[in-house]
Amino acid sequence: MKTLLAIHDEGSFQAAAKRLNMTLSAASMQMKQLEEVYATALFDRSTRPPSLTSLGVKLAEASRSVISGYEDLSLLLRSEAPLSGRINLGIATASIRLLPQLTKIMKERFPDLDINIESAISIKLIERVSQGALDAALLTPQILSDDLLATTILTEPMVLVAAKSKRSQLAINLIHTHPFILFDPRTGIGKAVDAFLTRQGNFCRKVTVLDSLEAIVELVALDMGVTIIPEPEAARYGRGRVVWTNELGSELQRNLALITRRSAGSLHLHKTLADAFHAALSADSLLQKAATSPLSEGQNLLS
């Protein structure tokens, strides 16, 4: 069933086999066995690659809750003991800075736990958690379905960032007079910033879209434009070469949330992971400062 669902979600035998770390022939053999069990053709093999029949699609979609419930049993049984075994954890690409502290704390608290990390944009991680491919994820929340539980871990101010040479000019009107570098609008950060810019009304700007916060800050440091990103990212990648302001106001901020499925085993995992994330936050002085202290105009924590 896991293989069938992976083929349904990934669109091909080859992609599913790669995701499940198995050979293509093993995946094909499993599907033939599944067809024998149900005495039904699940794939149309007249196409290349083979495609799911309508019954194959129905079985794959029905398998999702079965697989999720089955995998949740181990979490439920471990609810009275320290976490052990293996969990699959997703972290949004823009939150990857939390990974070292989180991994360190989780290993200290749960030495028998094996953590598999997957990094992707938030919208993809939400899909993966909902499908049961991930046990939990830390991301910028989008619209969530009722089967998912979310707990806010951190709220970060979003700041306008410019090259250090622009310190004396640092103000919101820079978005009217300078090229703007936008983080991928498919992400939570990108969507929030794009909506903010739209609310600014009538102004002309040349927009460059990138999917790397580090690359964006590098371009800003070279005075190739301005950007709006979470303050910790400006501090992390700026290295004294950029300045920023929180003149944007409290309406523009980025929330990081932990999400899991709403099931008995996952609820225990949710609380345990939330505690670990908060501990990781406390251990990171830069993040803690960003979460509790507003910035003054043009302040650079590294200068």
Automatic annotation (TrEMBL):
<dbReference type="Pfam" id="PF00126">
    <property type="entry name" value="HTH_1"/>
</dbReference>
<keyword id="KW-0805">Transcription regulation</keyword>
<keyword id="KW-0238">DNA-binding</keyword>
<keyword id="KW-0804">Transcription</keyword>
<protein>
    <submittedName>
        <fullName>LysR family transcriptional regulator</fullName>
    </submittedName>
</protein>
<dbReference type="Pfam" id="PF03466">
    <property type="entry name" value="LysR_substrate"/>
</dbReference>
<dbReference type="InterPro" id="IPR005119">
    <property type="entry name" value="LysR_subst-bd"/>
</dbReference>
<feature type="domain" description="HTH lysR-type">
    <location>
        <begin position="1"/>
        <end position="53"/>
    </location>
</feature>
<dbReference type="InterPro" id="IPR036390">
    <property type="entry name" value="WH_DNA-bd_sf"/>
</dbReference>
<comment type="function">
    <text>NodD regulates the expression of the nodABCFE genes which encode other nodulation proteins. NodD is also a negative regulator of its own expression. Binds flavonoids as inducers.</text>
</comment>
<dbReference type="InterPro" id="IPR036388">
    <property type="entry name" value="WH-like_DNA-bd_sf"/>
</dbReference>
<dbReference type="InterPro" id="IPR000847">
    <property type="entry name" value="LysR_HTH_N"/>
</dbReference>
<comment type="similarity">
    <text>Belongs to the LysR transcriptional regulatory family.</text>
</comment>
